[in-house]
Write a structure and sequence with these properties.
Layout (H helix, E strand, L loop, with lengths): L1 H22 L13 E8 L2 E7 L6 H16 L5 E17 L2 E16 L2
């Protein structure tokens, strides 16, 4: 019985560390998920809307780099697209409780690209 209790505690501790550790990392380059990522769709033939949203641990520079990476993937090369419009911003959020208040910034890059022929 003692072994089962210890194993259960170890599993719970590992699960807790996995959840907390997974949340405290920057957004990876990925399709939009819980921690952010890219979204894109074709608005007209050859013109795409591209967006990348980061979490509080992802720098604005990384968000912009991932935006360009997605644009290059869509048009099959970093020299195969032109930017029609693009912008990047950070939104500030207040988090915490009455005794511990903090602010975090979440960056986003979005815009339109045109694939070159």
């Amino acid at each position: 019985m003692l072994r089962i209790f210890k194993l259960k505690n170890i599993i719970q501790a590992l699960l807790f560390l996995f959840i907390v550790g997974g949340c405290a990392t920057s957004t990876p380059y990925q399709k939009t998920g819980f921690r952010g990522g890219y979204t894109d769709f074709e608005t007209q033939p050859g013109i795409y809307y591209v967006s990348f949203r980061g979490n509080a641990y992802t720098s604005k520079e990384t968000v912009i780099r991932y935006w360009h990476q997605r644009a290059a993937e869509i048009c099959e090369g970093s020299d195969k697209y032109e930017i029609v419009s693009q912008g990047a911003s950070s939104t500030q959020y207040v988090v915490g409780n009455a005794s511990n208040i903090d602010t975090v910034h979440k960056s986003r890059a979005e815009g339109y690209i045109k694939c070159k022929k």
